[in-house]
Amino acid sequence: MESPATTLGRLGERALIARLRPSLPSRPDLLLGAGDDCALAAPPAPGEDLVLKSDPVREGHHFLPGTDPLRVGRKALGRVLSDFAAMGAEPRWALVDLVAPASIPVADVERLYEGLAGRAREFGVALAGGDTSRGDALELHIFCAGAVPRGEAMLRSAARPGDGLWVTGSLGRSFESGRHLDFVPRLREGAWLRARGRRACIDISDGLASELRHLARESAVRLSVDPAAVPLSPVCEAAPDPVAHAFGDGEDFELLFTVPPADADFADDFRRAFPATRCTRIGTVGEPLPGGLVLLGEGPDARELPEGGFDHFAPSAPASERDAPA
Ligand SMILES: [Mg+2]
């Protein structure tokens, strides 16, 4: 009889995989799942681009020791799915590399996979395999592949003068509220936006300020943002200097995107399609400008979004959260 405290080191990798395999979500185009040297999947259909993304989640950097493993698993897959959402792409198959100390209870690993599998099922993603390795601290490395109609992925470079600048949800203090673990990736919203025609999009993982700069630089345009229009999360609203947190904190996993002026019914249509998802206009795309620029406010009072050392941009997440590429 196995004690509830059985560790991964005691159980062994082979037995762990045998135990996890039956509960891994699959899908018809996954031809061969976990258990052989590689997984096999049907190639994307003609007229589709293959979409690839990987992302690590590390104890002490992306979550604190002692965090419920279910939420860690949810976050690990959610981060990758949020990037798919930003491209308007459909995630299909995910591989999970687990690095863990031998002393981790098997029950914790099972809970981790429960979190991964839950998010995967919710969005029709198969957990196609991966690998495990011994390490000093818990790490999950997720690789996901999927598809998007050819040439239709929403790129950071697609913002054009005259477009509106919008965000989903509300921003700030994601660490304090626990949202960084439990967020639902905006895949449905992303696919809907993409199907509506040309627009730029990026997910807010490193903080609104940072994503605005990416968008301005990649599209080579000036962006004008109204700080007072930025939607604040309830926990953020209660904090001192909430607007600074909304700009500077990371891990919101909302979408920042543009809306062409010709898309006049956008706000009404979005509200009808996603009555539970807040969607707010926060600014406008200005004239072309090599290198890009982000301005706060408009007219003579406009000032440049401060680079880095904006002293009241007090970050609440560990520094490692913001130093990695999106
Ligand atoms: Mg991203």
Helical coverage, percent range: 25-40%
Q: Quaternary status of these chains?
A: single chain
Shape: globular
Give the H and E element order: HHEEEHEHEEEHHHEHEHHEHEEE
Biggest β-sheet: strands ordered side by side in the sheet: 8-10-7-11-9-12-13
What ligand molecules are bound, each kind once?
magnesium ion
The CATH level-2 architecture of the largest domain is identified as Alpha-Beta Complex
Q: Please report which band the strand proportion falls in: under 5%, 5-15%, 15-25%, 25-35%, 35-45% or over 45%.
A: 15-25%
Largest β-sheet summary: 7 strands, mixed
Can you walk me through this structure?
With 326 residues, the protein is an alpha+beta fold. The chain has two domains: 13-149, 2-Layer Sandwich (60s Ribosomal Protein L30, Chain: A); 156-308, Phosphoribosyl-aminoimidazole Synthetase, Chain A, domain 2 (Alpha-Beta Complex), CATH 3.90.650.10. It contains eleven helices and 13 strands. The chain has helices at residues 8-11, 13-20, 69-87, 106-122, 174-177, 179-182, 187-195, 208-219, 234-237, 242-248, 266-273, and strands spanning 30-32, 40-41, 48-58, 90-100, 126-134, 139-149, 164-168, 201-203, 221-225, 255-259, 279-288, 293-296, 303-304. The strands form three sheets. It has a seven-stranded mixed beta sheet with strand order 8-10-7-11-9-12-13. Strands 3-6-4-5 form a four-stranded mixed beta sheet, with helices on one face. Strands 1-2 form a two-stranded antiparallel ribbon. Strand 12 and strand 13 (303-304) form a beta hairpin. Helix 3 (69-87) runs parallel beside helix 4 (106-122) and helix 3 (69-87) packs parallel to helix 7 (187-195). It is globular, with a radius of gyration of 21 Å. Bound molecules: magnesium ion.
